[in-house]
Write a structure and sequence with these properties.
With 147 residues, this protein is of the alpha+beta class. The chain is built from one helix and seven strands; from the N terminus they run αβββββββ. The model has no long low-confidence stretch (mean pLDDT 79).
């Protein structure tokens, strides 16, 4: 075996070059797979609104979703009820899709009504709890929630 000035033979140099190349390839391959992150799309809940008397969907209607937690506490300043809101428009089937993180203990859907002076009044049309069950049957709109 022939030795170079540094004390390594030709075979050893070839093996070292091969090992360095293999390590570089492996590290690039390893880091490439580590940096790829697949984030699944958020799972949305569907809330379908149907007129209770006509049984027709509230199609293409501007609505607002509001939710709060009914917190019972004994602090003099009260407890936060963590209000959350979402605004949007129902589709042709009377449905809206919202993130379930907005769902809380008490949920209300309001229909926007435009007044003659141009102002908007929010009219409550459906109330339901965190499981999607209607809190009252007296609301003018039937609500159906799917997760």
């Amino acid at each position: 075996m022939r030795h170079h000035k540094n004390g390594f033979g030709t075979t050893e140099v070839i093996i070292i070059i091969f090992m360095v190349g293999a390590l570089v390839f492996a590290s690039r391959h390893f880091w490439a797979h580590k940096t790829i992150v697949t984030i699944p799309p958020p799972r949305l809940m569907t809330v379908t609104l149907t007129d209770r008397t006509t049984h027709k969907p509230l199609a293409n209607t501007a609505v607002e979703f509001n939710s709060v937690n009914d917190t019972t506490c004994i602090q003099p300043q009260g407890c936060p009820n963590n209000p959350k809101a979402w605004k949007g428009t129902t589709d042709a089937n009377g449905s809206i899709k919202i993130d379930p993180v907005l769902l809380q203990e008490h949920n209300t859907i309001f229909q926007e009504q435009y007044n003659a002076d141009g102002s908007i009044t929010l009219y409550p049309v459906a109330n339901f709890n965190e499981t999607g069950t209607a809190e009252t049957d007296s609301s003018p709109v039937r609500v159906h929630v799917t997760f």
